[in-house]
Amino acid sequence: MTTMPATGVSGPRAPLPGLRTPATRLLNVIRLYAANPYTVLILPFIILLGILAVNVAIWVLINIAAGPQGMPQAERGLQYSGAGFYPFVYFLVVAVQAINITFSIALGYGTTRRNFYLGTAITFVLIAAVFAIAMGALGLVEQLTGGWWLGGHMFTSVYFGANWWTRLLVFFFGLLFALFTGSGFAAVWVRWKTTGLVIAFAVLAALVLGSVYLLTVSSSWSLVGAVFDGGPLAFTAWLLIPAGLSAVAGYFILRRATPRS
Amino acid sequence: MTAVVELRGLTKRFGKVTAVSDVSVSLEENRIYGLLGRNGAGKTTLMQLLTGQEFATSGEIRVFGESPVENARVLERVAFIKESQRYPDDFRVKHVLRAAPLFFPNWDESYARSLVGDFRVPLDRRMKKLSRGQLSAVGVIVGLAARAPLTFFDEPYLGLDAVARQTFYDRLLEDYSEHPRTIVLSTHLIDEVSNLLEHVVVIDEGRIVIDRDAEDLRGTAATVVGPRSAVDAFAAHRDVLHREGIGGLASVTIGDISDADRKAATAAGLELAPVSLQQLVIATTTDRTTTQQEDAR
Q: What are all long-range contacts of B167-170, with beta carbons under 8 Å and residues at least 24 apart?
């Protein structure tokens, strides 16, 4: 050990060479999520199929209750199924969970916050793609089998669009919305814990109420109507705006977060 | 000698609490450092600052010549094994051992496998279900197999049994001699590691109180024992770290004792005893007032 010179730390050295390429560093964050695919891949699939199973049971009951004559009318009602929305809610939770539990180990193993967040964002886009394709495929099966031979609608409910490619994009955009909204809240949680979330929700509520007030006093509700009138695809495309804002906010919030035990 | 870590005037405050206070230290390449101190002395915070996990309030940090904060090139050369490391909820031991190599470019997989055997860690068990000792063992395995040029072990052996602790010390020394690197061991089990340490940094209430070569440190401090009056006379103008007394007998620990001092003490009929590193740390980090209260009893 030498005493530090009075002038401060030693002068500039040649920049440190990187041992990994920037792309590898991002890829490694994705592989960290994949090290145990249970939380981000397997469990969501189990939940998705579980919801389908519950719906099948309900459709069987409806078929029995309605009888062959009543079924065509019952099926019109079944198109308005909201069951397909559960995966989106679940993925919001997945996003929060994934970031919360992975941040600590990623930083513990020397990942920068920046690489962690960017790697996480890529992971989320991949997850959204995988599940959009899976749900799109299940929708096709649902269509071809006449609603699982029961006239049921979960992946082909009217909310998701009329054909397979609309549904695919609606699922993809919807999942992106869920995951990136989740990542914003997750960043708030990781950095400020409960206090942060309480304040974040309060701010969000104020913003929503403020918008409602402004829309009302300016008689502009027709604008909101226009968003819904555009159909499912246009609506989910609009959702990408708040999702993007949440993702960007999450990045800046997480850049100053510290892992706490 | 190349400095791997250079700190100057480093301070970290959490609200009104100053966890690290004006620390200026440098760590050289390929040595084993002991970062010693009491619980809450600032050891973990200091290491978190060095690994870019905490942000400094003021002062300068250079690790491999650069700031570690958000610096991937620095951080991929550093392993920080901390006692409080959290793992993803569903992670099993095998998932940790699958994830760790991604982040440590020098990772040695076969060495990791052999360490798993040495420490008898169950690969299929969930991290949440591991005992305290097994959790520590996973940290030790990752920290050793990572072979990072700068490795921090923060209380690495909480809950490890005596056999596992000995295994850790043995493997650490073996691997260090084959693959020299800078290792910082933070601990309060001082006597057990004192033979491993080449340099000792003692931190107390956020300040560095000792920063010396371990060999020097062992040689310079001594405890002087004898009749109270003789001991007091001897200690009068010397650097007294610690003082104890029973009846007419007293003992003082002197921080810096020269050969002339030794002769003087022997001539005064006093006995000189070596001071263990642990005693020395206790002596330097015990509040003076408490010591005096103990004397009064």
A: B167/B118, B167/B119, B168/B140, B169/B193, B169/B196
